Automatic annotation (TrEMBL):
This is Proline dehydrogenase. SUPFAM superfamilies: FAD-linked oxidoreductase (SSF51730). Keywords: FAD, Flavoprotein, Oxidoreductase, Proline metabolism. Belongs to the proline oxidase family. Its cofactor is FAD. One of its GO terms (molecular function) is FAD binding. Residues 25-44 are annotated as: Disordered. One of its GO terms (biological process) is L-proline catabolic process to L-glutamate. It holds the Pfam family Pro_dh. It catalyses: L-proline + a quinone = (S)-1-pyrroline-5-carboxylate + a quinol + H(+). Residues 140-469 form the Proline dehydrogenase domain. Transmembrane segments: none annotated.
Amino acid sequence: MATRVIPPRILRKLRYNTATKPLNSTHPFPLSPTLSSPTILDQKPPSSTILRPAVDPSALNFHDVEKLFSYVPTSKLLRSTTVLYATGVESMVDLGMWIMRSKFMEVEGARDIILATIRGSFYDHFCAGEDAISASKSIGSLNDAGIRGMLVYGVEDAHDNDGCDRNLKGFLHTIDVSKSLPPSSVSFEIVKITAICPMKLLERMSDLLRWEQQDPSFILPWKQESFPIFSESSPLYHTRKRPEPLTSEEENDLELANKRLFELCQKCVQANIPLLVDAEHTEVQPAIDYFTYSSAIMHNKVENPIVFGTMQTYLKDAKERLLLVTNAADKMGIPMGFKLVRGAYMSMERRVASSLGYASPIHDTIHDTHKCFNDCSTFMLEKIANGPGGVVLATHNIESGKLAAAKAHELGIGKVNHKLEFAQLYGMSEALSFGLSNAGFQVSKYMPFGPIETVMPYLLRRAEENRGMLAASGFDRQLMRQELGRRLKTAIF
């Protein structure tokens, strides 16, 4: 009988046997299928070592490209390098966005050619699949490399209850698919409140919440218990006059939105997978924070939270709000989890503020944004090291990754518990993802899925908002090029 090699993901599962979970996992762990031998250029080079230290930031090594990309097939490396080069040229991004928004998309033959081109390049690179089943296969491939997935049902804003109900079914189906996957291979389910609550209602609720912040005597009869939503420096300029109370129809819509989010939270509790609420632009973020915090108070009953919020650290008030929320949660005995990101609506925020005659809510310099992200990361790491809660550090910045890894090592996070998760977008910052994973940290990829027509708004928004980051992806491209050269030499010589 041939010797059975233990798959790396099982070894990592043993190493992560205290992974952050609100409940005990009970589903079975299926065995990996046997793979046929690929050609020499398409082989995944063997990892130089199987058993790695629990967490060792000194192992955050970006020089050993063979080890860094040991789980990435050559065909995928070639495609990734090509796509990242293309997206690194801003004129090509502009051209692609123009084509996707042009009248060519209304011409049947041209539309088919455009979609086929997008599907074979940008879509396959940045999206996990056309449905939850195909996305689960992408997660399986990542899981073999020791990286987890955040499943993101790729829908954008909903404008009526019918759309919200359709989106809810998609989110619930995503959870069902996640339950069928190996334990811990899916780290979070992602929900966009804008997909399960009509946008107009979120705008109205945000106006009312902002006015309440300015006038504490202003009563909101529909408001449930929540944490602080604003700080003293939070932007309130969107609401210029006293808003009218919610109508009976709007209150009914709010009740339906509450029921949808409650159903999602309950399903996540049963599936043993935390729910992470995505952030949006400041026009509707107050209502999103309200939904997040009221749900957290309702569902975060044990040490590890089931509902996570998102804090965008490119906002000047981010650190103040983070302190206010965590202090309020501590006083109530509610464990709180946050995903920290820099932010994705910079151009929109600056444009809206300028049109209303106000200063931008975004930090004045990129240095200030980096400092805010790193300060908030340090604060959350120290917090979870000494108590309940959790943090997802969603960053593509190498220096932020190094700083957080060193701080986590200093605090002992990762050796005793796993309340820390690093995260990057699917198809981006592969070197950072694999480097952190090789160093022993839990790492997830944010993995949107859905039919290409449905995910198109996501791709357009990512292209527009992340053009600077895509143009700066030279670090990944350089390392991938080095590894491709190494593999070519190995194949020839």
